[in-house]
Model the fold of this input.
Amino acid sequence: MLIPDEEIPGDVSVSGTGALQPDGNLKVFLNITKNGIINAFGSVLMAKNSFGVFKVDGYDVFVSTYDDKHIYAVLTNIEETEPVPEPESSTYLVQNITSQANINYGGDQQQSGRLGTHTVYWDNGGSSNNPNGTSRYIQFTVNVPAEGLYKLDFRWFTRGDNSRRMKINSEPYEILYFARKDINTWEDNVIYRPLQAGENTIRIWYHNSGTERPMDPWLFIDALKVTAYDGTAERNTFWNDFSNVLTLNVNALNITDADGINAALAAYEKLTDVAKTHLENEKSLLDALKAGVTELETGRDEILNNFGFADVLSKSITSLKITDAGRLNAALAAFAALPEYSKTLLVAEKSLLDVLAVRMALLEKGDTVTVMLEDWLNAYLKDKGNGVYSTYLWSDKSSSGEETGFWQAANVYEVFNDYYEYTTDPAEKELFKKYMDGYRTRFLDGSFSWSGTWKNNEYTDDLLWWSNAFIRTYTLTGDESYLAIGEEIFKHLYMRAWDTREISDAHYYSGVQGGLLWKFNKSSNWDGSYPDDSNNSNEKNIATNGNGTIAAARLARIYAAKGDIVTSGYYADAAKGIYDWMRASMVADENTGKLWDNFQSQAGKNGPRDWQFSYNYGLFGGAAYEMWVNTGDDSYLADAKLVLNYGWATLTLDDGLTFKMEGGMDGGDGASFRLVFARYTGLVVKSPEFAEFKKYLLANAYQTWNFRRSGDGLVGESSIFETESATRIPSPIAAYGVLMQIYSDFNPNTTYGFENGLTKWKTGYKTFAEAAGDKTVRFDTHFITGGNGFGTNEGPSSLFDYTSLENTGTNTKYGGGVPYWAEWNYDNAFIASRLIIATANDNMSWPRRMGDGWTLSGSDDGVNWNTIYIGKANDYSNFNNTFYSFDLTDNTAAYSYYKLNSETGGDGTTVQLSVVALAAD
Done:
């Protein structure tokens, strides 16, 4: 039986790893383990994207390769424990056991190969120029006695998910998906299709459709089982799924039965015609139930209209404001006064009112932590209902709900640590411990899509994020299992990555001996050898050494508390050594606290990288803080304050408080940068010596609270504008808002001196809201179309994302030529009273790139347009993001569609803008 990397009969298993060779081939190392002990081993040289069967000390091993990260190895000469199934009644087994001829292949480069006792045909991808399957296909022929519906079940083996085109007889082709699986498994991809009496031809071939193209194109098909289908299985499933609906009484219906009845009817329509013949009585019952509940809904609508409070019932927990308290209380009182029968028809409305009442209580209490945490978890928590308790979705959009990447997931996990430390509620602590346990389980068993277990990761900093997170969980919960894994990760990394070599030309880095290396080649992960870093492919950075210092310092403190002075001393020495290297190498300016990001292998010759990322300042400050806590040495305290001060002074807007954007909305590393910076600022502020930094946390808690997205309560990248509903928000970015509430003690019912995000981001320049007169319309803006000749960096849709307000000198939004125009619409029509335009000119030689004149038009339907305004700016001398405001007080018509045109550019050819917006009185 073919089982990859698992126990098979005799407790024998095989594993394979690969090392890329200079000639581009792979050297595959194979270990045969029996009863937990290596029984045989060997290596073979193979090309990438190839397969074969090899002898290893008497064992036959089938090996297929994609690259050095994707090796698949199975034993093929172990006695099978699962025989090929015999054809069942009304089943036609189409199988190739070397003698049958009714499976065949065609075209060029098709091959067959032995897998244990099976002979299979494989298709290695074929060509995208072969859309009709005229070459490179796998084909089955099956004879059935009568026309009808049949169940088709393929048996196959593939290393990764695959998509293929399938064509039955002369019918149009369809897309069929083959998931990664063992070749002996039936019932993985059952489909129901009509077949004609007599001979039927089923052909499968390559499918290439952009994102649907599989990473691993190999597909081995062994057999096809075709079963005459009578629909009883579908009938039984339907009975089981909707037993609660099928037992309802037409004369005793409740309004809450509507959803179940509608779901049953929808499921019925998806059944095969054969299955429907078994459910005629059930369909009649469902129709009667539908009629009955419709009658109830009609009466409910009349009661609901009389009840009123449509404004309250249109609210959600994320759009609810504290000013809604009066209307909400009135609605609850009105519901309580309804006759009992009316209440039974407004169950959903009462449920909503109760949910809103709970949220209102939190708002009145000023509990922003619970509010923002609940909204964040609602968007990103997955599998809670299944008891896994694992939050790992990257995006709030279900269409792009991929898992959070390896190192960023550690920082999302840390939010659980943050809240666990914050809350005093035992029930909340118990719940969040389950979240942490679920995350740890997935981390250890490799069930995240991270290419296997954590030991496969070649990046030292990636693993140190997790080491720190788990060590911190131990300090909060006392659960020794977290200390065990956190310490194991650090010990492996310290032995592997601490650079003990003498300074040489080949390994120059910063010119200071020591430091933790950023990464290791996978082939040398744990053997103590150094990677080849002569080609500048490696580096030493703050992300690695800052994390390393923090982990070692925390371990030293833990073992000191346990009374283990020897182990504590070992980790204390490690922390000091790592910190000393970082202090000597990564501080760019001793007076200001400016930091470098990294040195490459030979960067001492070329200079360090001057990348200004906030997480460097958080990690360095956090590392210095941990050293100060352990030693009491005030030089560490001074270091922490110096770098934290520089970070907050340079990475904020001109108010010196509100955090700038750092990217990451596109899925990049920047999504977690400010999360790290904010966390370590929050952790050090717990000590009175760092009280001066509390103002930053409070200011940004204020901004994130006020710019939550009304639809779901999430915070995006911008600190001064609400993220639009269509924009996907990565989990770490949204978590930043939660973190600000946890560490700031912010209360929305308290008056602060902040400007609600409307700070002067550049001295002497108007902010967006100042230009609009503080009456900005914050409807979601929907870009429709625009032109002419927009630049390659950002198109005209970016005129409405407001992101340039937090940048200086942006030139990423512009039209490459004239006429320049953009068309957009809003969800609601309104009377525009002011037009705001911001420049994006990046060339002082052409200071008039705002345009020589503008025409603003409005429309009810996007087809028929009326002119609202014709005019131009009087001053073109300003550069970059300069705001201009145009008075539209003569406009008295409300429109939902708007269009802006400029016939000529200020320099005759080019217009450059960053923001277009409207305001209303």
